[in-house]
UniProtKB/TrEMBL annotation, chain B:
Keyword Cytoplasm: no
GO MF annotation terms: DNA binding
Organism superkingdom: Bacteria
InterPro entries hit by this protein: Metal_resp_DNA-bind_regulator (IPR052509), Tscrpt_reg_PadR_N (IPR005149), WH-like_DNA-bd_sf (IPR036388), WH_DNA-bd_sf (IPR036390)
Keywords on record: DNA-binding
Organism: Amycolatopsis umgeniensis
Designated name of the protein: DNA-binding PadR family transcriptional regulator
Pfam family, one: PadR
Segments crossing the lipid bilayer: none
Transcription regulator PadR N-terminal domain boundaries: 14-86
Length: 221, 108
């Protein structure tokens, strides 16, 4: 294995994050190292020494990996924010469509809602919009703050907003589920399709929240 | 000049190097070294994440291009990047004028 490939392999082993973004960053690093080695070779240095010098100029993998990791972690969080913005409203709309298609109008149950449950449904309607709003504001903010903050500090801010958006989504689901169960457990069983979508929604919510609590490799100071 | 002294200025230096042209990563590093007569001593590996950060901030745009027969990611300034560079230059001018006035040697 060449010196450059060994170095890229070392860097690869140290990085955690979305695979496409990681491949993109490592491809560019490999290209840069190949260019640097080529420049040394053109200066009359043999291939092995040219690669060794190119790698030495690039910096120790332990140090460089921190810079790359900060960027990669941030990209992962930005990807999660997009999933919140697009995914949550899509699942919600999917559940409503499934309900209309398989169950019909709520009044069909013939059971009037108590006042407190109507208030819960209204609160749920607001809470379920909050994650998408947090996500959109965070994405805009990340772009603006990225002009003032380094990747590490921005990553901390973004990680909190991901947790807030995903947490609010889960809280909304929990509120509706607990309230409906307390009122009348049979209402949880709207239809098979609705139940499948609802379970998917819960799984998606936990999946969104999981990156916020996943330990991450040490970042650059 | 060591990497620590450059850390706060790297973004501005990268924007300046890309002013009016489109370059790939290694060409940017070469341009930095050329313009500084080799005085800029920073690990070249730090330049690539910095370019991505500037792109994320909207100051740079990048794309994969074929340069000298090889596929490379090339970068160019956006309109926001041009404004940011102009602001950095004005700020630097003011800074050097003020500090130069104090350190410049006059005892008045």
């Amino acid at each position: 294995m060449s010196v450059i490939e060994a170095y890229i392999g070392d860097l690869d082993a140290r990085l955690r994050g979305p695979s496409s973004a990681k491949t993109d960053l490592l491809t560019e690093a490999r290209d840069g190292l190949a260019d640097a080695a080529e420049a040394y070779r053109e200066g009359g240095i043999d291939e092995a020494e040219a690669e060794r010098r190119a790698v030495a100029d690039f910096g120790p993998a332990s140090v460089i990996a921190r810079e790359y990791q900060a960027e990669l972690a941030l990209r992962g969080d930005i990807g999660t924010l997009w999933k919140v913005i697009v995914g949550v409203p899509l699942i919600q709309a999917g559940w409503e469509l499934a309900r209309i298609w398989t169950y019909g109008d709520w009044s069909r149950s013939g059971k009037p809602n108590p006042e407190w449950y109507t208030a819960v449904i209204e609160l749920f309607g607001v809470l379920v919009l909050v994650p998408a709003v947090i996500g959109a504001v965070s994405l805009f903010g990340a772009r603006r703050l990225g002009r003032r903050l380094d990747s590490v500090s921005l990553g901390r801010v973004t990680r909190w907003t991901v947790a807030a958006a995903a947490g609010t989504n889960l809280l909304a689901l929990l509120l509706l589920t607990v309230s409906t169960t307390v009122l009348d457990p049979s209402r949880m069983n709207v239809s098979l399709v609705c139940n499948i979508v609802a379970l998917g929604w819960v799984a998606f919510s936990f999946w969104l929240l999981s990156p916020a609590f996943r330990p991450r490799p040490a970042l650059a100071a | 000049m060591k990497a620590d002294s450059l850390r706060g200025h790297l973004d501005a230096l990268l924007l300046a190097v890309l002013d009016g042209r489109k370059l790939h990563g290694y060409a940017i590093i070469e341009a930095l070294q050329l313009r500084s007569d080799g005085a800029l001593d920073l690990p070249t590996g730090t330049v690539y994440p910095a370019l991505r950060r500037l792109e994320r901030a909207g100051f740079l745009a990048s794309e994969w291009d074929v340069v000298s027969g090889r596929k490379r990611r090339t970068y160019k300034l956006t309109r926001s990047g041009q404004k940011a560079l102009a602001a950095e230059r004005a700020e630097w001018q003011e800074f050097t004028t003020v500090i130069g006035g104090v350190l410049g040697g006059s005892t008045a």
